[in-house]
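Quick one: examine the sequence and fold tokens given here and explain what the tokens say about the fold. Here goes:
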Amino acid sequence: KFKGQDISAELNLNLRDAYKTHQQTFEINGKKIRITIPAGVYDGQQIKLKGHGNPGFNGGPNGDLFITFNISKNLDFERIGDDLKSKITIDLYTAMLGGNVEVKTLDGTVNLKVKPETQNGTTVRLKGKGFPKYKKDGEFGDLFVTYEVELPKNLTEKQKELFEKLKNS
């Protein structure tokens, strides 16, 4: 009795797919296999499905199926472990006077309060708004949001005068 040959396969996911537990069906050697992909899988991670490889010989057990996950890059978020990083553009007036901005997360948007006199490049942490921790229900990493202050363009003469007054006061 000999065990069947193991099979390796790759499964491509985007970051949003890897964010939520979901089922996916794919075909190996003409056989459809439905698997549940747990939230929080990471790029390059490999899982083993026992007995889903090639058939055994002389009544031996089937081989195993090894699936490697390939997570594509995301334009809005950079994943570092269970944490996510993103950038948000705020205008000069919000940076100077404070205000509220909407920040995208992988499960919606949140309102974020910008403190007055916020500097360009300031990073704030949104606890628990990052990526789900693999096989740890309800546990999430953090989301780190970096502010990029956009300076106004095409100032009117009145606006230029006001900036001159500020500069000289």
The first strand starts at residue 7 and ends at 13. The two ends are 90 Å apart (CA to CA).
